[in-house]
Write a structure and sequence with these properties.
Blueprint (H helix, E strand, L loop, with lengths): L1 H17 L6 E4 L7 E7 L9 H14 L9 E4 L3 H13 L3 E6 L4 H9 L3 E5 L5 H12 L2 E2 L2 H8 L8 H8 L10 E5 L4 H13 L4 E6 L5 H7 L31 E4 L2 H15 L5 H20 L3 E7 L13 H7 L4 H8 L3
Parallel strand pairs: 2-10, 3-4, 3-6, 4-5, 7-8, 7-10, 8-9
Antiparallel strand pairs: 1-2
Length: 347
Amino acid sequence: MQNAWVNHAIKEIDADFQRSADTHLIRLALNDFPGISLYLKDESTHPSGSLKHRLARSLFLYGLCNGWIRENTPIIEASSGSTAISEAYFARLLGLPFIAVMPSCTAPRKIQQIEFYGGRCHFVENSGQIYAASEQLARELNGHYMDQFTFAERATDWRGNNNIADSIFRQMSREPHPVPRYLVMSAGTGGTSATLGRYIRYQGHDTELVVVDPENSVFYDYYQQRDASVTAQCSSRIEGIGRPRAEPSFIPSVIDSMMQVPDAASVATLHWLEKMLGRKVGGSTGTNVWGALQLAKQMREKGETGSIVTLLCDSGERYLNTYFDVNWVAKNIGDISVYAQQLEGLS
């Protein structure tokens, strides 16, 4: 009977995938960078609203095929929001209870969306407590701790099978510069950057993977030092990316280079993007695009042409009470005007 339920669950996930179209690749026209094209892979259009929809699907399939998820298994995840929303979506699809363990400061809109999909939230005081609390809940409830920070890099088929890298290169195939000079990605678990980096090498593309990292994250230091014991005292203020510890799913050896991005630059960029796109985007997208613009400037200075692809990770509607609240930004991020002025002249 359990095998029958698992078979049914996998078919449900596959059917859901077939009902979804691929996400759009948006070309951002910038006259200030002649011969250089910037593209945004819009992951906000997934059914659960973010890039994490891909990860959640992969983690559920990984758990099902490993025999870790069975009928009525409670699903527990350590997540500040977007992964939890996407996992709650799939848990509801399969009729499984879902609990998200997250810091109490998580954006209210994300909490509401988890609850919309039937999940519930278990709050801890700081992000460093989410791992132990998730493991404890899984033991107490005889549930399965998804552990995105360990399994994200291995749950996705990085060779292809319409993963995000495969999708990007297929969609770029008829563009003026079909093989991107750079792919730019921020890291939360490190799973997407691992998929991108492995795929680039597997396919032999002449593309560099650049990972951008916000303040209060150790990924940049880990990349430079290769010391997995490095930790940070504070948590990232850019939700969904940056970690206070080096997560197992972050694979520095598949990355070509990293760039640190000030939080004020990330927030200034998401406001600039609202004017460019006519809609709001989240903080991680601001980090990604700021990094992509710095690379575009470097290419322009060297007289290079080519394309840069980065990700639009989720919608800004989830952050109306934070990144789009002037008072919250002033209190928690500080003055963003220096970076806003740098962006203002771009067209």
